[in-house]
Design a protein that fits this description.
Elements (H helix, E strand, L loop, with lengths): L1 H6 L9 E6 L7 H12 L10 E10 L2 E10 L4 E10 L7 H14 L53 E12 L6 E12 L2 E17 L2 E20 L4 E18 L2 E2 L4 E18 L2 E14 L3 E5 L2 E6 L4 E13 L1
Helix pairs in contact: 2-3
Length: 330
């Protein structure tokens, strides 16, 4: 893209623009961004009034910076909007990609827009007025409906695609005779507001004593997940998920005989809420409560002579809670 802009000749039809810029300390100034943009457009400062207002906001987020650009004309009509993410600790690095994107927005704006009215001269402050905190830059009067904001609402940001790998502790009730305890490994891929994932887990469910012996229970299963992101902020990500899983419910008998086989199929479907909260760069805490319906419910019996004794049948509904850590690759 840089080579493309560098090769463009100066075009008289490019609409003149002005930039309202809000950025943390250490970031490029508005003048730096404007000069870099005009360099890529291969044009000098225009000799006519600005026709476009570009509002630029820089926020620090998750080991990098997000630049929001919004272009409007004198009537307040939105012309273009872009979000740029730059990874790294130095805010100066946003200058190059911001100038390239801004040049694209200006070059694609329709020419001949009504010029912006000149800004009114500021009123002199009262002689004895107490000092006040600096307020954000006010755009020209022709843009009364599009004020610059130091931080856009989280919903306006485009969430970049990412992969997460998590290791969780798991507890469940309903599938095993007593509360199950185990571990789960989960991988997810998120793009836009959609989430997809796979998971493998293993749980033990204690021991049931019967007829002079005992039977231990284990549950191993694999799952497919899909979901939609409900909330994404700097402090919390929340997704509604659905799950389909299949596996094996296995028994380990001691001094008793289990009827049929020691391993039976198990199947579940369910829904839950996956919450992720950032701890340090890359690492997130995970909380994942779920409710499930048991699709395959096979009864386990032991035999004592010619008599069968039931020892466990999975419940029709089960609950599950996962707590752990995930690393997010962006």
């Amino acid at each position: 893209m840089a080579a493309t802009f560098a090769s463009w000749p100066a075009r008289a039809e490019n609409a003149p623009f002005t930039l309202a810029w809000s950025a943390p300390a250490g970031c490029p100034s508005a003048e730096d961004i404007v000069d870099a943009t005009r360099l890529r457009l291969n044009e000098a400062a225009p000799d006519r009034s600005a026709e476009l207002l570009v509002t630029g906001t820089v926020t620090e987020e998750r080991g990098g910076f997000v630049v929001e650009l919004q272009t409007t004309d004198a009537s307040g009509r939105a012309v273009g909007r872009r979000a740029i993410r730059v990874n790294g600790p130095r805010c100066r690095a946003v200058e190059e990609p911001t100038a390239l994107v801004l040049a694209l927005l200006v070059a694609s704006a329709p020419p001949g827009t009504t010029p912006l009215p000149p800004p009114e001269p500021p009123e002199a402050p009262p002689p004895e007025a107490p000092p006040s905190e600096p307020s954000p830059r006010t755009p020209p009067s022709g843009f009364a409906r599009t004020t610059a904001s130091p931080r856009l609402a989280p919903e306006a940001r485009e969430s970049p695609a990412h992969v997460a790998l998590g290791l969780d502790g798991v507890t469940s009730v309903g599938a095993l005779p007593i509360a199950g305890l185990g571990v789960a490994i989960r991988g997810t891929y998120a793009t836009g507001s959609l989430l997809f994932g796979v998971e493998g887990s293993f749980e033990v469910g204690g021991t049931v004593r019967a007829r002079g012996g005992e039977v231990a229970f284990q549950l191993a299963r694999a799952s497919l997940l899909a979901g939609v992101q409900l909330l994404a902020t700097r402090r919390l990500e929340l997704a509604l998920t659905v799950r389909a899983c299949g596996g094996t419910l296995r028994v380990l008998p001691t001094n008793v005989s289990v009827v049929r086989t020691n391993a039976r199929p198990a199947a579940f479907v369910g829904s839950g809420l996956l919450l992720r909260m950032p701890l340090v760069p890359g690492f997130h805490a995970e909380v994942f409560p779920e409710l499930e319906a048991t699709i395959v419910r096979d009864q386990f019996n032991i035999r004592d002579g010619d008599v069968l004794y039931p020892i466990h049948t999975p419940e029709r509904f089960a609950a599950r809670l996962s707590l752990g850590l995930a690393y997010v690759f962006r």
